């Protein structure tokens, strides 16, 4: 495919357990929103963790800008411009919003640059400026998710990965989250995300990747994936989704 | 009224020293999930260092304090490398450290006893037995200096944690180890550094202790339960909570000791611990445990 980010033949699992992912792949286009969907246990989160370097790969190829990055640690991925927000949002609950953002730029090790980048984030997400000195753990779920996503932008990454950003949020807030995802993509950042709610995810994405039993069933432009009859079969055994 | 002020003053002096003792313990638990039962025995180690520094070279224990802190911090690095590093990923790490540090406490006690005998010691710079009077309120200089020094050190620790890059990393690791690693924090290095700082604080507390209390190698058993109760009350891993608990309980204990009888003053800590566990099990400043 393109030589931006290539992900193919991914096989991974936890510990000595069975392979959760078996020969999964996905196509990534620069600057687009990619949504990985699939039924429970399909391996969506596992795929994301494997790409982010949180799980060792048993097999597979991940190359980024021509470099083989399979098997790197998450912080090494970060230095190369790939940021990841795990499902648990990964905030520091007793640090303020500003301190959380500072931690986002920990590897920058440059106070001045960090402060100005935090200001940029505050310009883009005014709610975070309003809450700058509040402990992250005391904010609402939506605000916490906003902070977790905004925090990845401090390092000006090329690729951001969000594992179920909608988890535990009210429908109205979920829509806001997807607006933020779109805003991020509009600045040229490539987004990979996992979504439990397939319809919701595909509606807000450009590209859909369907996983089942650890393998990539098929992928394509999200409108096409959404219309594909295989989706309905996969989710509800032939009944209509949503 | 004078008596109330008098007792409160004595309580605050002791509270400072206990706060410093507990702060190191709390830091080590917060970052590493190590329940360090050997902490008080290392405080005694620091006390001996200050004692001999004074006895042999006539160095004031307050001057010896940084030396004690550095020597103990180095010991901390050694202990961490030898005992604590390799099993850090085990699911039962905290439980194992209880047994391990219990053993270390006994070994440290034994070594100190073999080297320095079990005689009671106390460092006796001139101020240790001197006092101020404000009106009729009697302020022992030793306790006053020890209390002030403790507060200064705790203030420096707080500023370090709040503003320095390593401080950020330590706090982040305490609150969410995985997320900190994800953002590029070397959590193993942070663990080592916090362990060294925690044990270094034990050394500093030892230097102060050496002229506030008389001590002997087995004295640490008296403190371990009190310090553990402070850490649990404060909220496991919350340094602020530990410090608040240390001051408030030391003051209460001083009143209990004066009005009810000194036998009961140590009981204050355990009664308070009992009440906290009953009504606020996560501790004063702890996170409510999630019911998963």
UniProtKB/TrEMBL annotation, chain A:
<dbReference type="InterPro" id="IPR052156">
    <property type="entry name" value="BCAA_Transport_ATP-bd_LivF"/>
</dbReference>
<dbReference type="Pfam" id="PF00005">
    <property type="entry name" value="ABC_tran"/>
</dbReference>
<dbReference type="GO" id="GO:0005524">
    <property type="term" value="F:ATP binding"/>
</dbReference>
<dbReference type="GO" id="GO:0015807">
    <property type="term" value="P:L-amino acid transport"/>
</dbReference>
<feature type="domain" description="ABC transporter">
    <location>
        <begin position="5"/>
        <end position="238"/>
    </location>
</feature>
<keyword id="KW-0067">ATP-binding</keyword>
<keyword id="KW-0029">Amino-acid transport</keyword>
<dbReference type="InterPro" id="IPR003593">
    <property type="entry name" value="AAA+_ATPase"/>
</dbReference>
<protein>
    <submittedName>
        <fullName>High-affinity branched-chain amino acid transport ATP-binding protein LivF</fullName>
    </submittedName>
</protein>
<dbReference type="GO" id="GO:0016887">
    <property type="term" value="F:ATP hydrolysis activity"/>
</dbReference>
<dbReference type="InterPro" id="IPR027417">
    <property type="entry name" value="P-loop_NTPase"/>
</dbReference>
<keyword id="KW-0813">Transport</keyword>
<keyword id="KW-0547">Nucleotide-binding</keyword>
<comment type="similarity">
    <text>Belongs to the ABC transporter superfamily.</text>
</comment>
<dbReference type="InterPro" id="IPR003439">
    <property type="entry name" value="ABC_transporter-like_ATP-bd"/>
</dbReference>
<dbReference type="GO" id="GO:0015658">
    <property type="term" value="F:branched-chain amino acid transmembrane transporter activity"/>
</dbReference>
TrEMBL record, chain B:
<dbReference type="GO" id="GO:0005886">
    <property type="term" value="C:plasma membrane"/>
</dbReference>
<keyword id="KW-0029">Amino-acid transport</keyword>
<keyword id="KW-1133">Transmembrane helix</keyword>
<keyword id="KW-0812">Transmembrane</keyword>
<feature type="transmembrane region" description="Helical">
    <location>
        <begin position="144"/>
        <end position="161"/>
    </location>
</feature>
<feature type="transmembrane region" description="Helical">
    <location>
        <begin position="7"/>
        <end position="31"/>
    </location>
</feature>
<dbReference type="GO" id="GO:0022857">
    <property type="term" value="F:transmembrane transporter activity"/>
</dbReference>
<dbReference type="GO" id="GO:0006865">
    <property type="term" value="P:amino acid transport"/>
</dbReference>
<keyword id="KW-0472">Membrane</keyword>
<dbReference type="InterPro" id="IPR001851">
    <property type="entry name" value="ABC_transp_permease"/>
</dbReference>
<comment type="similarity">
    <text>Belongs to the binding-protein-dependent transport system permease family. LivHM subfamily.</text>
</comment>
<protein>
    <submittedName>
        <fullName>High-affinity branched-chain amino acid transport system permease protein LivH</fullName>
    </submittedName>
</protein>
<keyword id="KW-0813">Transport</keyword>
<feature type="transmembrane region" description="Helical">
    <location>
        <begin position="262"/>
        <end position="279"/>
    </location>
</feature>
<feature type="transmembrane region" description="Helical">
    <location>
        <begin position="61"/>
        <end position="84"/>
    </location>
</feature>
<keyword id="KW-1003">Cell membrane</keyword>
<feature type="transmembrane region" description="Helical">
    <location>
        <begin position="96"/>
        <end position="116"/>
    </location>
</feature>
<feature type="transmembrane region" description="Helical">
    <location>
        <begin position="223"/>
        <end position="256"/>
    </location>
</feature>
<dbReference type="Pfam" id="PF02653">
    <property type="entry name" value="BPD_transp_2"/>
</dbReference>
<dbReference type="InterPro" id="IPR052157">
    <property type="entry name" value="BCAA_transport_permease"/>
</dbReference>
<feature type="transmembrane region" description="Helical">
    <location>
        <begin position="192"/>
        <end position="216"/>
    </location>
</feature>
């Amino acid at each position: 495919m393109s030589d931006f980010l290539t992900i193919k033949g991914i096989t991974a699992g936890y510990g000595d357990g069975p392979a959760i992912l078996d020969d999964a792949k996905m196509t990534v286009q620069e600057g687009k929103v990619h949504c990985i969907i699939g039924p429970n246990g399909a391996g969506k989160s596992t795929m994301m963790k494997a790409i982010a370097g949180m799980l060792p790969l048993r097999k597979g190829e991940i190359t980024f800008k021509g470099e083989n990055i399979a098997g790197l640690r998450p912080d090494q991925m970060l230095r190369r411009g790939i940021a990841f927000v795990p499902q648990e949002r990964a905030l520091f609950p007793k640090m303020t919003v500003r301190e959380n953002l500072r931690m986002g730029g920990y590897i920058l090790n440059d106070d001045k640059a960090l402060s100005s980048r935090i200001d940029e984030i505050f310009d883009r997400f005014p709610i975070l400026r309003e809450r700058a000195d509040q402990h992250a753990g005391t904010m609402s779920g939506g605000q916490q998710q906003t902070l977790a996503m905004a925090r990845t932008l401090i390092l000006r990454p090329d690729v951001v990965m969000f594992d179920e950003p909608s988890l535990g949020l009210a429908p109205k807030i979920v829509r806001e989250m997807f607006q933020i995802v779109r805003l991020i993509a509009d600045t040229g950042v490539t987004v990979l995300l996992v979504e439990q709610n397939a319809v919701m995810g595909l509606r807000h994405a450009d590209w859909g990747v369907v996983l089942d039993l650890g393998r990539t069933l098929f992928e394509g432009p999200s409108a096409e994936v959404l219309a594909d009859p295989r989706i309905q079969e996969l989710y509800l055994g032939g009944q209509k989704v949503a | 009224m004078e008596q109330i002020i008098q007792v409160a003053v004595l309580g605050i002096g002791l509270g400072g020293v206990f706060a410093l003792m507990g702060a190191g313990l709390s830091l080590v638990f917060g970052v590493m999930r190590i329940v360090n039962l050997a902490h008080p025995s290392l405080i005694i180690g620091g006390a001996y260092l200050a004692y001999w520094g004074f006895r042999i070279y006539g160095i004031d224990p307050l001057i010896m304090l940084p030396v004690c802190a550095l020597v103990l911090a180095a010991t901390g690095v050694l202990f961490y490398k030898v005992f604590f590093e390799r099993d850090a990923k085990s699911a039962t790490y905290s439980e194992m450290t209880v047994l391990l540090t219990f053993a270390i406490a006994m070994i440290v006690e034994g070594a100190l006893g073999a080297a320095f005998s079990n005689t009671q010691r106390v460092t006796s710079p001139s101020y240790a037995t001197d006092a101020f009077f404000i009106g009729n309120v009697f302020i022992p200089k030793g306790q006053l200096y020890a209390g002030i020094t403790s507060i200064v050190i705790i203030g420096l620790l707080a500023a370090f944690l709040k503003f320095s890059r390593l401080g950020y990393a330590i706090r982040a690791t305490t609150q969410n180890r995985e997320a900190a690693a994800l953002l590029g924090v070397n959590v193993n290095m942070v663990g080592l550094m916090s362990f060294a700082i925690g044990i270094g604080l034990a050394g500093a507390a030892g230097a102060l202790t050496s002229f506030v209390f008389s001590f002997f190698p087995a004295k640490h058993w008296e403190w371990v339960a009190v310090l553990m109760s402070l850490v649990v009350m404060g909220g496991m891993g919350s340094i602020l909570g530990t410090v608040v608990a240390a001051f408030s309980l030391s003051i209460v204990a001083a009143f209990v000791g004066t009005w009810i009888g000194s036998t009961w003053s140590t009981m204050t800590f355990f009664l308070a611990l009992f009440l906290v566990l009953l009504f606020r099990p996560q501790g004063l400043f702890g996170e409510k445990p999630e019911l998963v």
